[in-house]
Input
Amino acid sequence: MIVGQVLINILPYPGSRLVVSAIIELLILRGALYWRGLNFKAIGLSLEQGSTELKIGLGISLAWVAVFSLNNTLAGSPPALEWLIYLARDPSVQRLRDTLIWLLRTAADALAVGIVEEVIHRGWILTFLIMSLRSYERALWLSALVFGVPHYYLGLKGIIVTAAFGYIYGLLYVWRKNLVVPIILHTLWDFALWVGVLGKLG
Output
């Protein structure tokens, strides 16, 4: 019963615009690729060796989140899991339902952002820069900067940190020649950040 109620309430919510936006952006990108005679595989969005890529992506992602969470905890910013505390204090069906809906919506948002940003910034922009500049290093740094600057609302430190993450996502893409690993890392990082696993970053 509760599972049915949760599933019914996943999509019609304000944050679902991220999911809808992701679908629209992927359709536009698909059109642009088709116009050039290409497909998603040309920019690394392929499920070939999917189980291997999934295992590598999950392994790197879980280790990455665990290291950052431990580092932040040691630096005085432990995980901020108030939602879990509230659930423990009030384990009612309603509270459980609301928490599950929130977690699923947050996961959907994180996945939408992870897919769209990786397809655009690594699959499209980085691939274009590598072909144009004929240098992996210059292409990685330039694409990282292009990824970081739109996060100006986080301030200069936020731009630098986001650009560093963009560089890492780019390295993973170049290493695996596939977007699955960077998408998984990007998605799990955003999800962990938004649900408070990483504590307060700042």
